[in-house]
Amino acid sequence: MACLAAQADTDLMARVDPADDSIRRYILRRYAYDPRRRERRHQIVAAFDSEAEFEAHFREAHAQLVQDRAAGTADPDEHYSGVVQDPGYQRLQQNGRLVRKAIARGVNIDTLLDDLELPSNVGIIRAGRDTSSADIRP
Fold first, then answer.
1. First to last CA, the chain
2. What are the CA-CA distances from residue 68 to residues 56, 61, 94, 100 (Å)?
3. pTM surpassing 0.85?
4. Where are the domains of the chain?
5. CB under 8 Å to 81, separation ≥6 — which residues?
6. Does the chain have fewer CB atoms within 10 Å around its N or its C terminus?
């Protein structure tokens, strides 16, 4: 695999679990064909607790990919990218999915919203009437 050569030089870097939601992590992803799923998708290569370590690994992986492309052994659509996930990112995204599914099923989400912190990419807009005013006529 093309990434193995790049991995050899970075094995001493402080890798972390990409699913560890208690820390900020820099996640290196590879967009490539996944034969098990029979589709192209982003696959996690490694996660680091330091931006400098992430960038070093990214440069090595990209250099190896350029060599593989020159040799004709890499797919032209294949590439590397990275995402930064702050502590609590996965929990917030799960909360957003929970609220979306509850709304889709017609559940009253008032009690959910009191207890859940939502991610910054989720907004809730409510429409309704104020029935406490005397000016409202049926």
1. 70
2. 19, 10, 37, 42
3. no
4. 2-85, 88-122
5. 28, 29, 31, 42
6. C
